[in-house]
Design a protein that fits this description.
Glutaredoxin, Thioredoxin_domain, Thioredoxin-like_sf
């Protein structure tokens, strides 16, 4: 998963004709650490998408602009526009993340 550390990197990542899935996380978040071990295999299974990680604490202005308060949260973009989000303060399971990514296939067309 590629790391995003500033607004320029974020803007470059979302200006893509592929779907860019942005994962908002932090180092201290237990629920974020819960998904970390299986995310590489999820990324491999959904290789049609580009995956990026944003540390919400490092980029709080962006998180607030996008109204990301609960983490981990996923926001997906295509051609610079938000197309979907999976945002809540609840722990996310692998099946829930995969269902979210499966639903993005409708956006691709």
């Amino acid at each position: 998963m590629k790391q995003i550390h500033n607004e320029q990197e974020f803007n470059t990542a979302i200006q893509n004709d592929k779907i860019s899935v942005i994962l908002f996380t932090t180092k201290w978040c237990g629920d974020c650490m819960f998904i970390k071990p299986f995310m590489p295999s999820v990324e491999a299974a959904y290789d049609a998408y580009d995956f990026y990680e944003v540390d919400r604490d490092e980029m709080m202005d962006l998180a607030q602009e996008l109204e990301i308060m609960g983490i981990p949260s996923f926001v997906s973009f295509k051609n610079g526009k938000e197309v979907s989000r999976f945002v809540s303060s609840l722990r996310k399971t692998r099946p829930e993340i995969e269902a979210y990514l499966d639903a993005l296939k409708d956006v691709e067309e």
